[in-house]
Every structure is written in C-alpha cells, then in structure tokens.
Design brief:
This protein is an alpha+beta fold and 238 residues long. It contains 4 helices and 8 strands, in the order ααββββββββαα. Strands 1, 2, 3, 4, 5, 6, 7 and 8 form an 8-stranded antiparallel sheet that branches.
C-alpha cells in the first residue's frame, strides 16, 4: 500500500494569523496593614494626621505683627487774624514809646499816691522826680530811684554795690557848691562833712568828690528848678 502523503495546504498570499500572547496572571499585592497611628486615627476622627517625616517636626513660624500706623500729631490751625488782616509786629520805636508810656503811668501812680491832697498836708513832697545815675564820691548807684523833694530836704534810695540799699536823707542847708546842668539834666552838690556808709567813698576835702543825680524827664527837672532850687539857695546861705 502506498503511504499516505500529508495533506497539502494550499498556498495563499495571506500571512498566517498571529498567535495571541499568553495571558499573564498577576497575583494581587498584599494589602498593607494599618499602622498603630493610622489605627488611632480611624478610631478617633479628631486625631492629628500623621506626618510624613517622623524624625523632623515642622517648624511653626509666628505670624508677623501687623504694622502700626504712624501717629501724626494733629495740627492746630493758626488763629485767623482779627478783621481778616495780618498782624504786623510793631517797630522798635513803637515798642520804646510803649515802654516810655508805661513808665510815665507808673510815675504818675506814685505821684498820685503821695500827692493825694495836692501838697497841702505836711510831709507831702513838693516835687516827685524819677532820677538815675546817682553818684556819691567814687561810688555809683546801681539802680534808679524816685526822689522826693520836700520843703527842707530830699530823700531817695541809693543802691550801693557792697552796702546794698541806703536811704538818703539830704538837708538843703548842708548842700554846698550846688549846680544844675539843664542840658544834661544833672543836679550836683557837695557836703562839707563825712557821710555815714561812705567813709571810704566820699572825702569832703576833695573838690572832685560830689553827690549828683540825673533827671529822667525834662518837665520834672523844670519843676525842680522852679519849686525846689530857690529853697536850696535860701537854706544854703544860712
């Protein structure tokens, strides 16, 4: 018998079908067991979530303080000028005139306090003058002073550099070699004896040692010349 020949597969131009790759069977990974901290979180919902890095705790930065706004002092508005006009500073001459006016008022008040009755009462001065630059020998007074001229004497305060205030009471009959310089408004006289408190300052034997005062106001000097100087002339001749 003839042996059987294998069946001939007819040739065709088509490629033989590809075999599907065998399927891979993968085993499921084992389910991770929850840690103790995760177990506590599941039991307590308010538990703190675990930190990825257990070895280093996160640093908490304090929030920066809010900037405090700078306090600007409230500006007080300048008072508006009265009448809508800017105030003008008085000139130096106006200021000196105001000072002179105040001085005149002060002297007038002193005169009114002393001469309330017009000089009728005994002890009231005939003339009240405000004088300065007092001199006794080599000593000069440090301050001005009102001078009261009475019928027989004049009184004033002499501010000595060492002795302090000295109350002067000069009698007209003791005044010698007197003179009145109307241009300089200076009244000078000499005393022919030693003066208490001026032993080292006044020497009656020296012609250049005198007592003097300067009138501050010309009307007061004129009043002195008219009312007091004749009395000094009459008393000094005795």
């Amino acid at each position: 018998t003839a042996a059987k020949q294998p069946a001939q597969i007819p040739h065709c131009n088509h490629h033989p079908p590809k075999k599907a790759p065998p399927s891979k069977v993968t085993q499921p990974l084992p389910k991770p067991q929850p840690t103790e901290l995760a177990q506590r979180q599941s039991d307590d919902p308010q538990a703190i979530a675990p930190v990825q890095n257990q070895t280093q705790a996160p640093r908490l930065q304090a929030p920066a303080p809010a900037p405090v706004p700078a306090q600007v002092p409230a500006q007080v508005p300048a008072p508006a000028p009265i009448g809508g006009k800017k105030r003008i500073r008085p000139s130096l001459s106006d200021q000196l005139a105001a000072i002179s006016s105040n001085t005149d008022k002060l002297i007038g008040g002193i005169k009114e306090s002393i001469q309330r009755d017009g000089g009728a009462v005994k002890g009231t001065p005939l003339v009240l003058a405000y004088c300065k630059d007092f001199v006794v020998g080599t000593s000069r007074g440090q301050f001005s002073s009102p001078v009261q001229f009475f019928n027989d004497r004049c009184t004033y305060a002499f501010h000595h550099s060492r002795e302090g205030r000295i109350n002067m009471d000069m009698k007209y009959r003791d005044m010698k070699e007197y003179s009145l310089d109307e241009r300089k408004m200076v009244f000078k006289f000499r005393i022919h004896r030693n003066l208490e408190h001026y032993v080292t300052c006044y020497d009656p034997g020296r012609a250049d040692h005198v007592l003097s005062m300067v009138f501050s106001k010309k009307p007061e000097m004129i009043s002195f010349k008219a009312k007091v100087l004749p009395l000094i002339q009459g008393d000094s001749r005795r």
